[in-house]
Amino acid sequence: MPFDPTKLKDWQIAEEAEKSLPTNEDWIERLGLEKDELIPMGRTPKLDFIKIMDRMENKPDGKFIEVTAITPTPLGEGKSTTSLGLIEGLGKRGKNVGGCLRQPSGGPTMNIKGTAAGGGNALLIPMTEFSLGLTGDINDITNAHNLAMVALNARMQHERNYDDETLATRGLKRLDIDPTNVEMGWVIDFAAQGLRNIIMGIGAQRDGYMMQSRFAISVSSELMAILAVATDLADLRKRIGEMTVAYDKKGNPVTAEDLEVAGAMTAWMRNTINPTLCATVEGQPVMVHAGPFANIAIGQSSIIGDRVGLKMFDYHVTESGFAADIGFEKFWNVKCRLSGLKPNVSVLVATVRALKMHGGGPKVVPGRPIPEEYTTQNLELVEKGFCNLKHMIEVVKKSGITPVVCINSFYTDTEEEVKLVRKLVEETNTRVAVSEHWLKGGEGALELADVVAEACEEPNEYKPLYPLDMPLRERVDAIAREVYGADGVDWSPLAEEKAKRFESDPKFADFQTMMVKTHLSLTHDPTLKGVPTGWRLPIRDILVYSGAKFLCPMAGTISLMPGTGSDPAYRRIDVDTKTGKVSGLF
Amino acid sequence: MPFDPTKLKDWQIAEEAEKSLPTNEDWIERLGLEKDELIPMGRTPKLDFIKIMDRMENKPDGKFIEVTAITPTPLGEGKSTTSLGLIEGLGKRGKNVGGCLRQPSGGPTMNIKGTAAGGGNALLIPMTEFSLGLTGDINDITNAHNLAMVALNARMQHERNYDDETLATRGLKRLDIDPTNVEMGWVIDFAAQGLRNIIMGIGAQRDGYMMQSRFAISVSSELMAILAVATDLADLRKRIGEMTVAYDKKGNPVTAEDLEVAGAMTAWMRNTINPTLCATVEGQPVMVHAGPFANIAIGQSSIIGDRVGLKMFDYHVTESGFAADIGFEKFWNVKCRLSGLKPNVSVLVATVRALKMHGGGPKVVPGRPIPEEYTTQNLELVEKGFCNLKHMIEVVKKSGITPVVCINSFYTDTEEEVKLVRKLVEETNTRVAVSEHWLKGGEGALELADVVAEACEEPNEYKPLYPLDMPLRERVDAIAREVYGADGVDWSPLAEEKAKRFESDPKFADFQTMMVKTHLSLTHDPTLKGVPTGWRLPIRDILVYSGAKFLCPMAGTISLMPGTGSDPAYRRIDVDTKTGKVSGLF
């Protein structure tokens, strides 16, 4: 240790580091757990969070650190890597530190971006389990979600085929579902663009009900949002029952409870409520709970993970998906408001590479060689691109949470480039640290660990961007102007009609606002980099997550189902059939 | 013990019995395992079969007992129940006994038939884990299978959108896939009739490739067939690579290997290779491995499960799906031929209820009250319906395996009815036992256990129905005449064309024949009961499982995707949110 990440691939580092992965017995001793608080699951045990919370009820919470980023290149700027590096750095300083990350989706893992296990010496292990299903939470969500759709379409078929009297013999009352007004689609946890829009129910009388439908990626399921914000199994059950699956012909919601499938859905999800325990390559505890994609989902690790982490650790590190306009905005205005937990510090991850892109560098395309501008010194691009980082610093400051900028150093960055970024950040009166956790692990993250620990001691006052009694369209306007830097919001006729309905119906008064927007730009257009000005945010539709209690305005043309590219990661993934070890994950 | 199954529901019995479920430590001691041969997974550990086989290599195999049945009512005639009862009975006699059953599919569990955990005092525990995903094997198969379809459709999109030169920059050579000749569909493990036939790829240039497609139930996936017959991880990897996903425009197969997705599919399935360990309510070990549905799949527990079971136990019990014409025929001619293992005894399960149905009793409809004929004495129906059992006895005798008929007694059967069946079986010179395991557990299965143990000592000579060098159409003819009692086979033009091609291509010379046919009749028509005569078997198509090395002739109108009825089980399933316990499974 540390490993040489310029020579070894991540999965090779993981394989080596996993030789000293803590065992269940190690964890019980190190975390001071009771034996029955840890549920053995191969190499990745689950934690019985209720038992732990009950035992530690009176212990004061630790420091709460969130990690976010500037607008990333499509390759990602190492937010997970920095979260893990920070945990390793605080660990090297002898702190009782841990965190909670999100389970990766099979979409990116099998496609171009790869898994979300960090990288180099700031890596999560066991990497194979983490990357390929872990303890099954996403599978459970997929099954529970699709069971609602099975129940919906079968019910529509039976209501079409049988009269009221026959339905009554099965104890069924006609729900009279409108096939043109179905809120939910199906889910699958791959980037299956071919299933984005489908016609289903083709055939004869018993081949279902013919209608348009769609598949989204599983991690964007409302059930994942519910898991991220649920407080316990009872809350999960209640919220699942309240999910709107479709509408009847009068426009009334048809819920999972109406379809009598909410109990069974909860049964499929019963194990998801407990976080799974993994580790950094340096052995610090990292829980994994809930899912990614803050562009099309809440994209936060769970409130349960934060609650239990703040009890178990003196420093609890979590991350919010993608950039500060997306993941952090939801952390700030949705997750923290719901949990009531007060974060101390938000770490803003920036890379020289991304700053150059914002400064006008050539397009970065996943799976293709990176242009020369990104691997040779170019101070002009860095300076011009700083505007995006500056904007994100201002966003974090609006929340009252103390920002710390982390320059996530890459081995091709020059000393002068890094020095320039540091100077520019310091000019905004913001703490900054350079970190080399990818190259050196915790040893490389000591400056970051020290600056973050210092910032944690600073008093701060968390305040949401908008009060909950602000009407939906005003809230979206506030987010668009204050966070994205837009001049205002344009509503499609459909979105406006829905917004008016939600604003006037008291049922939606306590619903959170969860934006759906690309993470590749502050705007809705992924090609616009830096800090675009003179633009308005177009909202085309609003999704209703009535179990999660979210209204989700959708900006631009973003889809809930990503696509698989022409050079996907699965081409290089294989199994050593002698040892069972998986190669090619990155 | 025993519990009163006339008062308690199965999930209530399970809840009580699970209080004494063996722990991992118990299993290690009782089965004489090395610590690392057991992989902890909550309450259902996996067994590292390679390690166990290596250690026990030189131990002679135990006795090998298979359980099959007469043509069942749609409610099932208690094959799993009898398998578990037999294990309990042999256990009560002090034998070292265990078995391997199949993981239930979410389709029946959420629909009308319920889970496959047996029932009453012959029940598999932990019942919730077993019924709802267990250790994730079916989820892993679903993901691996669908990843092949993601790869297929994305490749078709990219080949349409890019010219050869652009494809070459990604290292891709045009596969030129024929969208009208796609062998595989998607899978989901519910009874989702609305997804039987879909049109996918609707939208614009990056929304996939538009084509017809279909969803089958996951347990019918070729990957499940491969898991059932694979010898180890290397064999699994090789077979996955050979799976035919589609054909190119010249009719050549496009395999998972061609799509460069076989390694990643194996990675998703790497954990499925090890059986999961559960128990009877009386504490005997029962492995669970591979899947159900011998009508539309192989429907056998795995060869791996049998191999390791025959080493660990002196009596190893397994079951084959549905009736002897379907599950047993595949056990006999496919599974045993592939494994080379020689079964000692096949237990043929019969119920008074099913015999009455075959004798002309009224239709049995799942989810509806059962007609009076089935709950009051009716010797005439029993005697008339005996023909089906007699036929199945003859089928088993053709295999050379020693048959034992088990009259699976139900508490509404009269003494005279049971006596009549016993007499009729004895007249065929076949061993017979009455078993009351449902009501009394192992105590109720002592006669069955004794008769089976005795039959195991009888020398027998297993012989397949047909030699492997018999051409496909002759084989199907032999199965239709000798097993189903048909007068011959009618091939559709499509099926005949395919059959001729397979017969003349040496590539298919060592392929097994896996029939797809309803289990509700000896014929292809589920409404025809008893032993129909004067009929011919229509074959409409032939599926190619080139990884499993199966050709699957499809009889009649059977679909690989069952439908969800109007009164499905999920309506009654729920979770106690205080304890996490699931109610309503049956």
UniProtKB/TrEMBL annotation, chains A, B:
| Keyword ATP-binding assigned | yes
Question: What reaction(s) does this enzyme catalyze?
Answer: (6S)-5,6,7,8-tetrahydrofolate + formate + ATP = (6R)-10-formyltetrahydrofolate + ADP + phosphate
What biological process terms from GO does the record include? tetrahydrofolate interconversion
One function term, GO molecular function aspect = formate-tetrahydrofolate ligase activity
Q: What class of enzyme is it?
A: ligase
Which InterPro entries has this protein been placed in? Answer: Formate_THF_ligase (IPR000559), Formate_THF_ligase_CS (IPR020628), P-loop_NTPase (IPR027417)
Q: Which Pfam families match?
A: FTHFS (PF01268)
UniProt keyword annotations, A-Z: ATP-binding, Ligase, Nucleotide-binding, One-carbon metabolism
CDD domains associated with the record: FTHFS (cd00477)
Q: What is its EC number?
A: 6.3.4.3
Q: Which domain of life is it from?
A: Bacteria
- Summarize where ATP binds, as residue positions: 73-80
Known pathway: One-carbon metabolism; tetrahydrofolate interconversion
Q: Which family does it belong to?
A: Belongs to the formate--tetrahydrofolate ligase family.
Q: Which HAMAP family match?
A: FTHFS (MF_01543)
- Name of the protein in its database record: Formate--tetrahydrofolate ligase
Q: State the organism of origin.
A: Metallumcola ferriviriculae
